[in-house]
Every structure is written in C-alpha cells, then in structure tokens.
Amino acid sequence: MTENIFYSLPDLPYGYKDLEPYISENQLRIHHDKHHQGYVDSVNAVFEIFRKAREENSDLDIKSFLKTLSFNMSGHILHSLFWFNMTPAGKSGGGEPKEHLAEAIIQEFGSIERFRKEFTEAANSVEGSGWAVLAIDENAKRLIIAQIEKHNVNFYPNFRILMVLDVWEHAYYLDYQNMRAKFTDAFWNIVNWQEIEERFNRAKA
Ligand code: MN
C-alpha cells in the first residue's frame, strides 16, 4: 500500500513544547504522533481494502468498512482543524475574537462572554468522547455551536467548521486526568482567533 496513500498527518504549525503549560509536550506528542496518526493510517487502510477488492472484484462488508471510514476520516479532519485553531499563548493565542467574527458572535450569542460560556459547557458536557464545535450555517448565515460524539455523530451535513475543541480523554488525560473542565478552561489561552477569523471570512466569501 504505497501508491494510494492520499491522507497524511499534517505537521503541527508550532513546536511540541509551544502550547505549554496548557498542553504539555508529552500530551501533545502522543495526541498528534500516535492518536491522529492512527486515524490517518486507518483511513488509508480502508481505501487500500476497497482498492484491492475492486481490483479483484471480490466481496466486501461495505457497511462495516464505511462505518470505519466515517469514524477515522472524521477523526483525521477534526484533528487537522484542531491543531491549526490553537497557537502558543501570549504570541497570538488567547485574547478575544476581533472584527467580523466578533460581530457575528455577538449577533448570535449576545456577547463574547456568553458564547464562551455556551461553548465551554458544550465541551464539558459531551457524553463520553467527542468534540465541541463552532460552525457556520452558510445558508442561514448564522453561527452554531455543535457537540460531536466520537468523531462523526450529531454533526450537521454541510455546515462549515470554524473551531473545534477535542474533549476525548486522550486529549487531556496526561495533563489533567479526569478534570476535563480544567482543560477546556486552559484552551481559551491558546485559541487561535486569527485562524478562526480567516476560516469565517472564507466561509462568508
Ligand atoms: Mn484527539
């Protein structure tokens, strides 16, 4: 399986130590190099199984493989968004959203503070493993907070994702053990508002 590898692990846009003290080097390394890599490998493995079966014209458990593909592909996509919507604290991380994004947040949620509270609660209350998501409904031109279970359950087709927060235990357990809320609080210090604003502007364009 070499010539058909389409999906690969993106490099982090910062060093492994750069999100400390909010995410430790060890935590980030395992999350990126092991967990995210695992989703990428599984996606490529499923496509390789499809390729072989098509080549040999053999039977496949389509339902089972599509389920596996959906889970792993969604995991790959969400993690790729996640790394880039974080950035080292102080430099560009943290602070407040600006300009058009800030206006849209205030229009939808009433205030930045209210948005932050709702998003944090969404993250903290994900049942089991999942994500908190800020997305834009491009038809209605409105922002929406969503809660994804696993990597692919409860999301809305066709909404454009602007920001994600991974609240799988594998995202925070080494640093925060079972205290997810401490991790979601820490996230606001390393959130990359500039990247999220750029995604917002591309979605609106
Ligand atoms: Mn993860």
TrEMBL record:
The keyword Chloroplast does not apply. The keyword Oxidoreductase applies. It comes from the Bacteria. Pfam families: Sod_Fe_C (PF02777), Sod_Fe_N (PF00081). One of its GO terms (molecular function) is superoxide dismutase activity. Its EC number is 1.15.1.1. Keywords: Metal-binding, Oxidoreductase. Mn(2+) binds at residues 31, 79, 166, 170. Residues 7-86 form the Manganese/iron superoxide dismutase N-terminal domain. Residues 97-199 form the Manganese/iron superoxide dismutase C-terminal domain. It catalyses: 2 superoxide + 2 H(+) = H2O2 + O2. SUPFAM superfamilies: Fe,Mn superoxide dismutase (SOD), C-terminal domain, Fe,Mn superoxide dismutase (SOD), N-terminal domain. PANTHER family: SUPEROXIDE DISMUTASE 2 (PTHR11404), SUPEROXIDE DISMUTASE [MN], MITOCHONDRIAL (PTHR11404:SF6). Destroys radicals which are normally produced within the cells and which are toxic to biological systems. Belongs to the iron/manganese superoxide dismutase family. This is Superoxide dismutase. It comes from Candidatus Nealsonbacteria bacterium RIFCSPHIGHO2_01_FULL_38_55. The lineage of its organism: Bacteria, Candidatus Nealsoniibacteriota.
